[in-house]
Amino acid sequence: MSATIETPRAPQPVRRQRRFNFEKWGWIYMRASGVVLVVLIFGHLFVNLFAGEGVKAIDFAFVGGKLSQPFWQIWDTLLLWLALIHGANGMRTIVNDYASNRLLRVIFKGALIASAVVLLVLGTLVIYTFDPCPAGSPANLLPSFCPAG
């Protein structure tokens, strides 16, 4: 019994072309978001740890002051969205590689998408609705930059 192997350059059967190659765009996203994330993360670390008084200055007032500025809201939103989608895409790749059962793969990917959407929505809400000076709070509990009363 002998087996023959087709030559490597033999014409392949014509396959239906998909309009959108999700794996290719996922791969491109991982590379592009990784580069942007390096800049965002090191900028975040520099401002939080090295600029000013360092790590001992990070408290509620520091975070409240940062999140009250539109620049830092956009910076943190980009950081949140890029990092979370980057991580979810990496987990999707791991699920594709190791979950051999089709039903299990669908369940894992569904849970991954659901958790990513919930975290993106909650994180974005926190960034844009955070109020370090809530109305009606006792003055002794408010940060120093809040107007008294």
Tell me about this structure.
The chain is an all-alpha fold and 149 residues long. It has a single domain, classed as 3 helical TM bundles of succinate and fumarate reductases, CATH 1.20.1300. Helices cover 63% and strands 0% of the residues. The protein has 4 helices and no strands. The chain has helices at 22-50, 60-67, 70-98, 102-129. Helix 1 (22-50) crosses helix 3 and helix 3 packs antiparallel against helix 4. The protein is elongated and about 90 Å long. It is found in: Cell inner membrane.
Offer a few descriptive terms.
4 helices, about 150 residues, mainly alpha, 3 helical TM bundles of succinate and fumarate reductases
* Percent range of helical residues: 55-70%
- Stated plainly, the CATH topology is called 3 helical TM bundles of succinate and fumarate reductases
Q: What is the beta-strand fraction? A: under 5%
The low-pLDDT segments are: none
What is the overall pLDDT average? 87
Instruction: State the CATH class.
Output: Mainly Alpha
Radius of gyration: 24 Å
CATH architecture, please?
Up-down Bundle
Number of strands: 0
Sum up the overall morphology in one term: elongated
The arrangement of helices and strands along the chain is HHHH
Distance between the termini: 92 Å
Biggest sheet layout = none
Number of distinct helices: 4
